[in-house]
From TrEMBL:
It comes from Micromonospora viridifaciens. Residues 18-110, 193-265 form the Metallo-beta-lactamase domain. It comes from the Bacteria. Homodimer. Its EC number is 3.1.26.11. Zn(2+) 1 binds at residues 61, 63, 139, 206. The active site is at residue 65. This is Ribonuclease Z.
Length: 307
């Protein structure tokens, strides 16, 4: 199962309709929690995903709407006696904030947090399901966006294997070595398989337009990106290090994104349809204007190409 579950969608301060930020990514056996703002622990109760399910927490930066939920979620890990270590990734420059949030109140700590800060642009973390990469974004404080990249795989074609009389342990050898000699002829892996394209998820929060935004969004199957403002406030957005819905949609269109999720809305706009209207002028793929507690599926794999 691969899906995004939205906990909250408000920038800066929660509103009656929108909780502070917060996003869960369910990706096979991994459940990643991104940017838990205030109230994230309670929002999780509505999703059917428990603290025990979490495998990693990623924080883009230490503004309150992206991290004030950490104390509650971290203490919940111990309250629920989560048996496995949970990795926590955040900008290394914000370690002092993380330490304070971690120990914001007294609790009996049983859960093991594996602290893995981001020290440099492009730093990668190896997960069971692929590579998590951090890219520097443009915001008044140190901020990193993230992307999860699953490597391409290969799917063997049974009818082609049968045609060459390859079966049993020989299949494993062919996959491992890349070729096999059969009846005086060399059969390569590419002849009997197709590429299974890996999937990509990208998470781009508070930032002005910069190279990091494009690097993260490139060929994402699912891109979650902030659209704090509309184009009418483009000058203000640039000044304070944020994106407009139009900019986010153009990035998605230029980067070959398939499903685009806009979120982190400023409370100055009462009608969320305005974000959709603006984004639609630039992006023709699947467009989602995030609402709290919404689930968004990662689209099916791109079509496999021959060997
Ligand atoms: Zn924010």
């Amino acid at each position: 199962m691969r899906e995004l579950v939205v906990l909250g969608t408000a920038s800066q301060a929660p509103t009656r309709q929108r909780n502070h930020n917060g996003y869960l990514l369910r990706w096979d056996d991994e459940v990643l929690l991104f940017d838990p703002g205030e109230g994230s622990q309670r929002q999780m109760l509505h999703t059917g995903i428990s603290a025990t399910d979490l495998t990693r927490i990623c924080v883009t930066h230490f503004h309150g709407d992206h991290c004030l939920g950490l104390p509650g979620v971290i203490q919940r890990l111990s309250l629920d006696r989560v048996p496995h270590p949970v990795a926590v990734t955040f900008p290394a420059g914000g370690a002092e904030y993380f330490d304070r949030l971690h120990h914001a109140a007294s609790f009996y700590e049983t859960a093991e947090l594996t602290v893995e800060p981001v020290h440099a642009d492009g730093q990668q973390f190896t997960l069971g399901v692929g590579t998590l990469e951090a890219r520097r974004l443009r915001h008044p404080i140190e901020t990193y966006g993230y992307r999860l990249v699953e490597p391409d795989g290969c799917r063997m074609l049974p009818e082609k294997l049968a045609a060459y009389g390859i079966a049993g342990p020989a299949v494993g050898e062919l996959i491992r070595v890349g070729h096999l000699d059969r009846n005086g002829r060399r059969v390569t892996r590419d002849e009997v398989s197709v590429t299974r394209p890996g999937q990509r998820f990208a998470f781009v929060m508070d930032t002005g337009l910069c190279d990091g935004v494009y690097a993260l969004a490139e060929h994402a199957d699912l891109l979650v990106i902030e659209a704090t403002f509309l184009e009418s406030e483009a000058a203000l957005a640039a000044e304070v290090g944020h994106l407009t819905a139009g900019q986010a949609a153009r990035v998605a269109a230029e980067s070959g994104v398939r499903t685009l999720v806009l979120t982190h809305f400023s409370q100055r706009y009462a009608d969320p349809r305005r974000f959709a209207d603006e984004a639609r002028q630039h992006f023709t793929g699947e467009l989602v204007i995030a609402e709290d507690l919404m689930a968004v599926q990662v689209p099916p794999r791109r079509v496999a190409s021959a060997g």
